[in-house]
């Protein structure tokens, strides 16, 4: 038996060019590939050999990218049978089967072929697609065996991700246990052929996420999957097979879709200039993607609060539980169906992710009228829709039984026709008319309340009713005559804006709706008075917890992590999703309010905009903000951008983790502020010392907190260009994407502040800087 590339490991790095010249892409029968040997595909895209993942010492036979500097393994043979030494040997026998042996000649892994091909002179070859194939040496079409049929956690280009009905082969992804351990982890993403085929992401055997059926353009549960310059995707569904696949649009681009150990199904692309993998797309988008979150006949809308509602014509099975956020029991019909002809009809609901199709039936050619008729004639049929949405729609899907796992989208949703009692549809249609005319009225007349009314609700703006002093004026608690509790913000009279402009601006801002923004209920503009009326948040603001000796214990790590993520989503919405593209300019712990379930709600958003008039995106002559949260370029040069909010967010993150304020921070060992302290600990590898003792116990996974600290430091970097934008921050918080190393933070040494004259003057003026609006002239 002969071995290939028998150079000792040490020499490989010294003589790599020599090796490349010598390298081959095939192994022939009776040859052995030993640990230290590799074969490399012709274009040098992929390499097959033995490796150790992450920090592990175990050895595995696998395939990795040859051109990617970070070891990125795309396929592993002996996932569950590691080698514990360097004795591994891969052999191809004359009958075409590949076998991996250890030093004691025990079989660790072997290939099994479902194909009936006569084997003559077999060879193994590693291809530039990353596919490892066994074939007859004269035939490069028909493979005896190929690794793409037995994927691990990676969905590579040209793989047929799905089922071959002829051989029964189902190709699916299984996560690794951890980056150090390729053995079978807890997550699978697999095509389920029942009803209309769908991919299901499962944790062990529990459904976690459903991409939904293919509708001709995309999976109904992945509205963000769109034609793009990187890869071309295709879904094939015939009697013989059903699969999803993609090809690279540009063969030099390196991209992969991976099922991570934590269950995130994500696509990355390799960026050579950065030498890192860039996150590209995630199958799951947000918590509405959690399978069946809202229960049967419930629908999830991430922009609503709460996110779950019953479909029209349905009511919560247990109304109290449902409104308290326990949606598991779902919804039931308000009017029961008797299945009498003529007494039932269908209500069209638009912009949906179609319900689970495991209990469905389909016909690819039936038209929608026929579809409706068939559904109406079968009492257990609960809904129907088009099978394919292209060209105005074609085909028919019928659902039987409960409708499960529905959500609403802003774009790329689908129409679903839901069976309801005719009487119910009439009521609903009247209701819809009423609602829509009411909506129009609302648009015309956004509630502008009487000053008298507000004064009454707040006991004449009494001191007892004062909740605090916000960035733009005092805030009062009020109770309207109807019993509703409100928070009233009385704005300082700094605006030069006219009343009409102010009203228009407020109307626009009131349209911003997101679960992590405080909801504006109305406003009051009279004479010199300008007030905003908000939903009252019973749990006050974040600073009253994290900086309080006792109450800080009420916030454990999972809660804090949720608050950080929610705040990031709210800020991302302001920056990127809202039509207005708002820069907050005064994000801080006291502007993050907490609702009854401790969900974070950003307040004071948009105020900088209403009060600042035309200063929307560039230089300002007045700096509005709070010391400790302001970025250097803003505080010193008056230059603000989305990235100055990112800076404030980073400060907030470090405060939430440490339970210490950035401003006024003191440490006996140095004179740094919190940012400087965090940076110092981080560079010394002692970042875990930053963690607040109050929640350390509740934190089962310290690495998660360290990651959040790392993200916080990325946000407070000196140069705005280095700071990530909020969509990247949200991704970093919710995925395991690789993080760059942070550079030195801005203002990490508080004495820097004093370099600027104006700063020192203002420091004297504002003795209580922690909750002050600072309006100062820059140098
Ligand atoms: C491989 O080994 C077998 C058994 O020793 C022998 O019959 C066969 O000819 C060999 N094949 C090649 C390609 O060397
Ligand atoms: C092929 O040969 C190997 C080793 O000789 C043997 O273990 C295996 O069972 C054979 N496979 C088939 C399909 O005959
Ligand atoms: C997989 O799930 C089991 C059961 O929930 C759990 O005990 C185990 O720790 C999980 N393994 C990993 C690697 O997450
Ligand atoms: C209704 O459809 C279900 C599911 O396809 C089927 O089992 C049942 O026989 C149908 N009932 C009638 C009355 O056609
Ligand atoms: C938050 O407010 C709700 C409703 O007032 C209350 O029941 C809950 O105890 C508060 N949570 C904390 C942590 O104070
Ligand atoms: C802000 O002012 C600085 C200094 O005057 C100038 O360099 C910069 O281009 C200005 N930025 C914008 C967006 O106007
Ligand atoms: C955020 O940053 C990423 C990476 O730099 C970039 O690709 C993306 O376009 C940015 N998003 C916005 C909305 O600016």
Automatic annotation (TrEMBL):
Enzymatic reactions: L-seryl-[protein] + ATP = O-phospho-L-seryl-[protein] + ADP + H(+); L-threonyl-[protein] + ATP = O-phospho-L-threonyl-[protein] + ADP + H(+)
E.C. number(s) listed in UniProt: 2.7.11.1
CDD domains: B_lectin, PAN_AP_plant, STKc_IRAK
Keyword annotations: ATP-binding, Disulfide bond, EGF-like domain, Glycoprotein, Kinase, Nucleotide-binding, Phosphoprotein, Receptor, Serine/threonine-protein kinase, Signal, Transferase
PROSITE patterns (alphabetical): BULB_LECTIN, EGF_3, PAN, PROTEIN_KINASE_DOM, PROTEIN_KINASE_ST
Apple domain: residues covered: 339-421
Domain EGF-like residues, every copy: 284-320
Family from the record: Belongs to the protein kinase superfamily. Ser/Thr protein kinase family.
PANTHER family: BULB-TYPE LECTIN DOMAIN-CONTAINING PROTEIN, RECEPTOR-LIKE SERINE_THREONINE-PROTEIN KINASE
Protein name: Receptor-like serine/threonine-protein kinase
Naturally occurring in which organism (per UniProt): Arabis nemorensis
């Amino acid at each position: 038996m002969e071995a290939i590339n028998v150079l000792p490991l040490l020499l490989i790095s010294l003589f790599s060019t020599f090796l490349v010249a010598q390298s081959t892409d095939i192994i022939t029968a009776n040859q052995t590939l030993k640990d230290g040997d590799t074969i490399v595909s012709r274009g040098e895209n992929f390499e097959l050999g033995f490796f150790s993942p992450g920090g592990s010492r175990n050895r595995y036979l696998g395939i990795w990218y040859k051109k990617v500097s970070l070891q990125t393994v795309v396929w592993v043979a002996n996932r569950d049978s590691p080698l514990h030494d360097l004795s591994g040997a891969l052999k191809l026998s004359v009958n075409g089967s590949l076998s991996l042996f250890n030093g004691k000649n025990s079989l660790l892994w072997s290939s099994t072929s479902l194909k009936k091909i006569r084997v003559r002179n077999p060879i193994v070859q590693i291809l530039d697609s990353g596919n490892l194939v066994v074939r007859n040496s004269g035939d490069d079409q028909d493979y005896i065996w190929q690794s793409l049929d037995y994927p691990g956690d990676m969905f590579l280009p040209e793989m047929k991700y799905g089922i071959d009905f002829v051989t029964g082969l189902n190709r699916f992804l299984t996560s690794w246990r951890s980056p150090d351990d390729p053995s079978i982890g807890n997550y699978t993403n697999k095509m389920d052929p029942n009803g209309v085929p769908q991919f299901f992401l499962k944790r062990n055997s529990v459904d976690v996420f459903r991409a939904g059926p293919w509708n001709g353009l995309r999976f109904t549960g992945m509205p963000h999957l769109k034609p793009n310059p990187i890869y071309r995707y295709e879904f094939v569904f015939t009697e013989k097979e059903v699969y999803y696949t993609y090809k690279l649009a540009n063969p030099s681009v390196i991209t992969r879709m991976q099922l991570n150990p934590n269950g995130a199904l994500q696509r990355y692309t390799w960026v050579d200039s950065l030498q890192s993998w860039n996150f590209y797309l995630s199958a799951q988008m947000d918590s509405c993607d959690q399978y069946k979150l809202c229960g049967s006949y419930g629908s999830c809308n991430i922009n609503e609060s709460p996110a779950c509602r019953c479909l029209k014509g349905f009511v919560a099975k247990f109304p109290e539980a449902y409104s308290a956020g326990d949606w598991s029991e779902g919804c039931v019909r308000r009017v029961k169906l008797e299945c009498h002809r003529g007494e039932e009809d269908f209500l069209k609901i638009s912009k949906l992710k179609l319900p689970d199709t495991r209990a469905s039936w389909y016909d690819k050619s039936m038209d929608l009228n026929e579809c409706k008729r068939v559904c109406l004639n079968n009492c257990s049929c609960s809904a129907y829709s088009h099978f394919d949405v292209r060209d105005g729609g074609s085909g028919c899907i019928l659902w039987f039984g409960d409708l499960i796992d529905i959500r609403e989208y802003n774009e790329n949703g689908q129409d679903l026709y839901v069976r309801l009692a005719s009487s119910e549809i009439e009521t609903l249609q009247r209701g819809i008319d009423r609602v829509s005319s009411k909506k129009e009225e609302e648009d015309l007349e956004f509630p502008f309340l009487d000053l008298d009314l507000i004064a009454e609700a707040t006991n004449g703006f009494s001191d007892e009713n004062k909740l605090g002093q916000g960035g733009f004026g005092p805030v009062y608690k009020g109770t309207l005559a109807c019993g509703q509790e409100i928070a009233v913000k009385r704005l300082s009279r700094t605006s030069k804006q006219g009343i009409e402009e102010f009203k228009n601006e407020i109307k626009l801002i009131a349209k911003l709706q997101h679960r992590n923004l405080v909801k504006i209920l109305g406003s009051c503009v009279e004479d010199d008075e300008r007030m905003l009326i908000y939903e009252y948040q019973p749990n006050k603001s974040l600073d009253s917890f994290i900086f309080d000796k006792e109450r800080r214990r009420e916030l454990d790590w999972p809660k804090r992590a949720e608050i950080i993520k929610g705040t990031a989503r709210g800020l991302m919405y302001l920056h990127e999703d809202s039509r207005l593209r708002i820069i907050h300019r005064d994000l801080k712990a006291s502007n993050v309010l907490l609702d009854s379930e401790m969900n974070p709600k950003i307040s004071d958003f948009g105020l900088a905009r209403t009060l600042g008039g035309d200063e929307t995106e560039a230089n300002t002559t007045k700096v509005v903000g709070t010391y400790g949260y302001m970025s250097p370029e803003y505080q010193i040069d008056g230059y603000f951008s989305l990235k100055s909010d990112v800076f404030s967010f980073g400060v907030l993150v470090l405060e939430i983790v440490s339970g210490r304020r950035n401003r006024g921070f003191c440490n006996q060992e140095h004179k740094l502020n919190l940012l400087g302290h965090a940076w110092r600990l981080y560079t010394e590898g002692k970042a875990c010392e930053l963690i607040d003792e109050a929640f350390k116990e509740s934190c089962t996974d310290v690495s998660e907190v360290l990651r959040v600290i790392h993200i916080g430091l990325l946000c407070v970097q000196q140069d705005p260009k280095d700071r990530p934008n909020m969509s990247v921050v949200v991704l970093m918080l919710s995925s395991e994407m690789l993080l760059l190393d942070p550079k030195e933070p801005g203002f990490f040494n508080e004495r820097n502040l004093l370099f600027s004259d104006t700063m020192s003057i203002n420091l004297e003026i504002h003795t209580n800087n922690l909750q002050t609006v600072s309006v100062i002239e820059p140098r």
